[in-house]
């Protein structure tokens, strides 16, 4: 297992050493994340498909706006050399190794996104906006993730 | 075709930008508090660790993070539901067929796990980190997805 996938340090992900506010903060973050996906209407597959068919480029502002806020925060926190108060984790940028899997995964994900208009975060939010047929898509994601996990066990 | 703001953005940009800023703020708050660059797709494998004894899913990183990833996902559902209940935006049911959703979902499930991330992990945290792998991944999946969606449309798949 490559280190970049890991995040296996004991601080932060473990049951021990977590601050009592860890879970409430994660819940709050998820909540705001979900509001953002609903506000942007990215939780509607139709809006994503309109973007992919070049009929409405608004999605650029969703991804761009999100990266515009997260980017500087990530960089400033990392540069501070500090540690996260709720876990003690050192701030590190999210940098995964660029290898053929990144490219292959991007292609497979792209075909799936183009067929369905759904991606993981937006699909969870889609449940919240009442879009019950999305459960078929989420079921598909679990099937796909399970299948690739089993395949990897044999390949690795 | 005349490329003015109405043809590029027939629905305007305000709600897109506001939604994006909120998503970015949520990511930033979790990061500042915990040091975790949260993506939404690892939830799939970490949740499978509850039900599958396979070594692949019983890895430390999945078992150790599965509880907070579940809480994060519940938060996403609740946030979207609370917004829809309280705003003027109506409840929404897609017209995209369950078959398309399922088949696309399977490929999304495979692709995000092989490619080490999705629209939030790579697209927000990775791009925000200016990570080469994420920039390559996002450029790849956007281009492939656009080609796929247009091919399906050209083949008459509606909706």
From TrEMBL, chain A:
Task: Provide an example Pfam family for this protein.
Answer: DUF6691
What UniProt keywords apply to this chain's record, in alphabetical order?
A: Membrane, Transmembrane, Transmembrane helix
What InterPro entries does the record tag this protein with? Answer: DUF6691
Q: Where are the transmembrane segments?
A: 21-39, 59-77, 98-116, 122-146
| Taxonomy, superkingdom | Archaea
This protein is called DUF6691 family protein
- The organism named in the record is Halolamina litorea
């Amino acid at each position: 297992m490559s280190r970049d996938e890991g995040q296996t340090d004991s601080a932060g992900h473990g049951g021990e050493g977590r601050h009592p506010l860890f879970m409430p903060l994660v819940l709050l973050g998820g909540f705001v994340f979900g509001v953002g996906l609903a506000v942007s209407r990215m939780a509607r597959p139709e809006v994503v498909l309109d973007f992919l068919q070049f009929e409405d480029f608004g999605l650029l502002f969703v991804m761009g706006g999100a990266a515009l806020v997260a980017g500087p925060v990530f960089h400033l926190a990392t540069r501070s050399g500090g540690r996260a108060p709720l876990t003690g984790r050192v701030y590190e940028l999210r940098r995964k190794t660029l290898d053929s899997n990144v490219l292959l995964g991007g292609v497979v994900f792209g075909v799936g996104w183009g067929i369905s208009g759904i991606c993981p975060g937006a699909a969870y939010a889609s449940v919240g906006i009442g879009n019950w047929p999305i459960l078929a898509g989420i079921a598909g994601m679990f099937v796909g993730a399970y299948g690739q996990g089993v395949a990897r066990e044999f390949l690795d | 075709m005349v490329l003015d703001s109405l043809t590029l953005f027939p629905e305007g940009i305000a709600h897109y930008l506001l939604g994006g800023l909120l998503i970015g703020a949520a990511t930033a708050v979790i990061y500042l508090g915990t040091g975790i660059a949260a993506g939404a797709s690892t939830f799939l494998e970490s949740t499978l660790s509850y039900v599958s004894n396979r070594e692949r899913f019983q890895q430390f990183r999945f078992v150790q993070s599965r509880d907070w990833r579940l809480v994060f996902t519940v938060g996403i559902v609740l946030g979207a539901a609370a917004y829809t209940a309280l705003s003027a935006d109506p409840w929404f049911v897609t017209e995209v067929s369950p078959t398309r959703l399922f088949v696309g979902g399977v490929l999304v499930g495979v692709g995000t796990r092989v490619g080490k991330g999705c629209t939030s992990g790579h697209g927000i945290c990775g791009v925000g980190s200016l990570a080469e792998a994420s920039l390559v991944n996002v450029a790849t999946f956007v281009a492939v997805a656009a080609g796929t969606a247009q091919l399906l449309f050209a083949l008459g798949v509606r909706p």
